[in-house]
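Handout, tutorial session.
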Amino acid sequence: MTMLPPLGRRAALAGAAGLGFASFAQAQQAETPRRGGTLRIATLGLDTADPHRHTGSIAVQQAYVEALTSIAANGTVEPFLAEAFEVSADGRVHSFRLREGVRFHDGSALTSAEVIANLERVKNRVRGGWLVSAMRLAESFEAPDARTVVIRMREPYAPLLNLLSELWILSPNSPGWDDTITRPIGTGPFTFGDWRPKARFVAPAFSGYWQPGRPYLAAVEFDLRDDADFSLALRAGDLHVASVGRDKLAALSRDPAIRLGKLKDTNWFFVSFNNRSPRAPFDDLRVRQAIAYSLDKRAFMNFTAGQDGIVTNQMVIPGNVHFDRAMHDADAHVRPDPDRARALLREAGVTPAQRRIELVSWQESYAQVAAQMVTRLGFPVNHVALDDLGAQRRLGQYDWDLAVFSSGPRADLFLRYVRMMSDGPNPVLWGGVQDPEFDALVNAAVREPDQARRAVAYNRAWQRVLDRYYTVVLGHSQNVIANRSEVQGWDPGFTWACHWASGGVAQAWLAPRNPAPRG
């Protein structure tokens, strides 16, 4: 039985209409953009000044760096610093035609030589991250002329165009180029300005930006504080754009100066087992199944995302080209079944009261919801809630049993699969899966140029994850982004990126603020 609304994703979005969810762009007036002003944003932080070494700071750094491609609001790939691209019939050769007139913030021109320098830096000097697999397969980088870049792969590699949207092109004159970049020189609409880690980052406008007449803003200022409640700052006008928790939505929706929208891609929530060094009895498939039967997915998603949270057993939601309806409908754990769970534990010879579960999570309330569901089977649970660095350290020791986490929007589905591969980057959230057959299935999908056949191949790999209970997907939600009504020309994109080829801060401007009504 499906737990999705009858109209799938559209129904989920419609169910939130009472809270004022809408497209910001649709609600904006057709006016001549005003120049000047500082747009103040609070979404994700900035973890490094070196864009090639980031671990999740694209909400900030895409203000000042750009890539050959970008991800449009509908998830498709669009040209960015490349005005056009072409892929050979065998999927091995990718050719890019660079835009004319693009300059770095130091005034130097962008040519194919600089692009290739960035590709080689990521391939040869950067360890870890999303681009490791792609760069490992890159056979050569060529520059037939000053505006043409050719990437030859040893074998077909379908995710490349999407992944290049996060390979930012910097001037090799950037300080720290030979080690760790300390002050990136990019091509974006804003420049790398004053950075105070965990506090704020100010990016002044770049007067030589290649898009004529843009940006309109004088600067963008990012609030980098972790876990702050930005709803009051939004309502007071101290912030213009911010990600907000769902517990603040009711109050924000009643404010006529606030509009609510969503990122187009999703967060997905899951409970993972320790797959690298599983301790008895969690190396027994029946015990893993019992844990899965204890989880009430709908209740969890109601707590996390409200009624528009989407319950499924997959990495993606309906409407995504990789969503498999039959696999979704066959989810044995769409509803909790504690009686079945206890029967499986008896069959496995497990007495829950005699086995304490070590459960690791971030310091998020949703993890406690999952922990309480597991305790109903009789397991005592030692729930260790840590900050990001502490969780990464503990997970990497593989001395735990369960982990409750979420993972955010990605530029390509492969960026979700690669985290479960044997040599994937940062695999700890999924228990460090070591499965050569799973790796082979994912690699087969990556080598498939045809989109329809690639989706089938990816789903074969995902079925193996389901069958072996490496992780149990609870569901998906879309991050809520609020902005004040004076913000014009801007709408949330597919991922956290604040700037992309067809949208973002380069097109944003600030209308006069309406005076507060007198009461």
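The second record follows below. Compare its token runs with those of the first.
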Amino acid sequence: MTQSKKVLSSILVATTIIAGVAPQVLSIEASAVESGTKTVSVAEITELRSLNAMTLQVKFDGTLPAEDVADSNLAAIKEHFKFSGGLSIVNVPRLKSGSTDTYIVPVTIQNPGATYTLSYKGGAVQTFTGSNVKVGIRDTNQVTSDTFELESFQADGVVDYANIIAAYAGGRGDQAFVVDDDNKNEAGKSFQVISSLRDRSVTLTGTNGDVYTANYVPFTQASDRRQAPKFRLPAGETLTPGVTYTVTSNWATIANNSFTARAMAPLTIDSATFVDETSFKLTLAADPGMDLLAGRSVRLKGTDGSELTASYRFSSRQGTTGTFDVTSGGTLNSAIAYEIIPQNNWAATTNVTLGQKAAYKVESLNAITLQIIFPEALSADEVTDSNLDAIKKNFVFSDGLSIVNVPRLKSGSKSTYIVPVTVQQPGKTYTLSYKGTPVETFVGSSAKINMRDSKQVTNDTFELESFQADGVVDYANIIAAYAGGRGNQAFAIDDSNRDASGKQFQVISSLRDRSVKLTGSNGDIYTANYVPFTQASDRRQAPKFRLPAGEELTPGVTYTITSDWADIANASFTAKEMAPLVIAKATAINSKSFELTLDKDPGMDLLAGRQVELKGADGTTLVAQYRYSSRQSTTGIFDLVSGELSEDIVYTISPIGSWATATNVTLGEAAALPEVTDPDKKPDKGVIVVPENGNNNKPTAPALVDSEKNPVAKTPETITSKNGKDLPKTGDTIPVIPMTAGFGAVLVGLYMLLKRKFAK
């Protein structure tokens, strides 16, 4: 025994005699006052055994000093334990409850049967054999879309070390108990000990061939009064619903080691409140019943443009609320508001901010699309198509930005709107004031919309097609205004633009006033403009773009499309001669509109943006424009740009431009002539009476009724018989001579009859 130990023993004996009590436990580091110096003794290992593949039980000759078991001192403590065979400790030693010298020491996985040596702080070398015992786990269960748990039970003779170590005893309540050096409780029941799972992992293999290394989520191994440590897939990976996964491990034997994954809704963040300049409390909409916040982090976007990251403070959850701490030395500013954005989609937010809530929240989704969350839904006047000019004035942007169409409420949302704007400059900071509210800032997006294909569809028109399979959705499918007419194409995405399964989407907003550049291999360059109402028609996301009026694609020339708002995977096509549409007939609807029928269904809305000319038999000319989205198979509706159709005039239909041909296609029927009336009868409806010379008592023609049943006064010259069978074959009308007519008038009448007969 060293001199210092002799001194220590003497002091202990003296103290015992004087106080008349049992000796107290002291640290191995003791001080002796000898000439004012301090003598330090190095702990010695008196007993060493391997409990299982990852756990040692080490007995020292006394209690280790505080600094040799402090969590914050782990790096230095690891240097105290020198193993052979590449073994090392993974967490600090933990003194067993009720003991003064026996510690649970977690180590890296041992090779069963291998002989290892250990020297503590340069002391005597100890020898032990690697254990072939694995910890007994009963069940495995999925708990989120990327996390599962392994659960063990004390009933099976397995105890987590958190329940049997002195450091945690005060916080474990009735879960804390004592096991002896043989790891038996006072009833004699023997226990396997799960030591710290820090840095542990397991292998997850799916029936679909996926293989993952899932890492332990810190501080979950003995939380919520259960022995159910959580393991998480690599960042960004999720379990595939319907796939059965099997868990294997080099430190655990799992009785029920498989589970079939299912779709699981993310947690929902309800609110966030400041704690101090580096911390805040985040509250979920419902208590998850277990610590599913563990290992999670969020991004905070400040209204001043700043960004911070905060991580969950382990073991801080109380019911629905957990504490998050700002990382990397950042600080919170209580004077501004922060948008809470969960990282890796572990939770969904419902317009949650930390700090004073902004009047609205602006996010740039892509070069032409903003998403704006207002405090409440906008009024009908603020989203009505016919009110666009006034609505544009509500949005005051910096740097020349402006909206191009009305805001559209997202399906399933209370106040989140898709707002199409002119093309933004990537990385530029913009401001927006809505109806005079305080300015909000956002950064112009560098994201362009991903289009897959381009294709010629007529001699002057081509289309760009995108696909939801590529994560691109046209806004027509996700806005409340169109949901009723989209059928099974309509669905909802959240504020992070993910659907119910978690799939992320780019959003194509209104393409009104958009254009692309078309460059031909022959040197031709065109600006092709979007054809309205074609971006989500015919159950496809294939907007049409048209060359300037009178221009056509040159067959054999390869054209390449470029855009400041879209990236097109297949951006080139070679033009070919395409036959124009063929107009088969036209049928009147009313005085302003008519149906135009093609000889066959074009399969897409190739009538969009087209016009026809109507030439009347009376020399009049009218122009009609296709009514957008009115096509049903071969038939579309055209409306007059101005003027009205006359029911008595036949119009010849001619396409304006070369988009179609029309051979002898007419609208309307020739006017019918009036019937011949017996001169002996009184004048009736449709009768024209020729007065006797000098007779000023002219009969008045009765009023006629038009197609809308409204009386229309017409001159006698326009009144004709409705019964063509009663007319002479010449089509002329026989004059009706009153009995009071003079002799001259009678002669004139006879002459006309004779002339007509002989002429026939």
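Points raised in discussion: Residues 3-19 form the longest helix (17 residues).
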